[in-house]
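Record 1 of the preview.
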Amino acid sequence: MNKYKKSLLCLCLSSISSGVWADKVPLDDQELRGTTGQAGVALDLEMRLNANADGSPLAAAPYNSCTGLNGNNACRMAWQANNRTNEWLVYKNFYMVLKLNNLRLDATTLPSTSSVYADANRFKDSTGACILAGCTPNGLPALKLSFAGNATTTEVDYEILANGVLSMEVSAAGYSASTNPGYNGFRVADSNGAYVSGQNLTAKIDIDGRVLVYGF
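->
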């Protein structure tokens, strides 16, 4: 392509670009604040540790259905405190399911008036000057997190199933050791009536209210 053709091509692209953006005007903060969306986002989240979709523990080796003497399987979660060498707090025969159902994310604005718990000092700099008008974030854009329903209705917003035995192991690899038996068993579940051995139903929790997240 010769120099003349290159110049003509650049001129054409420049003209197209100018035409596309000619009517585009940036919005200021006040205009952005007044802009609202017509739809939000709903999320279903699920986390499983050593468990199948139905809540039952993984059966194949090395999980072995999360059962066994002294928790001699891979179903475990271990904790070690800082400066506590070779001391491990180990959850053995451990499996868990966590679910968040229909968590809603929406755009909104903060209330125009402050609650009785508002603390204006949180919005001052080191000299005591307000970093926001009136030392308040009232009316700022925010992200709202909420679940469906209200205090007069019952929904399954949060589900949890947890099972295990707490044990202490003392060795460099205590996180994988099976020397000591458990001393504190725990289980969070819903038997949905009379307990049935082997049944793994999540406990159901209803969460009401909302959380507003904002920045400035």
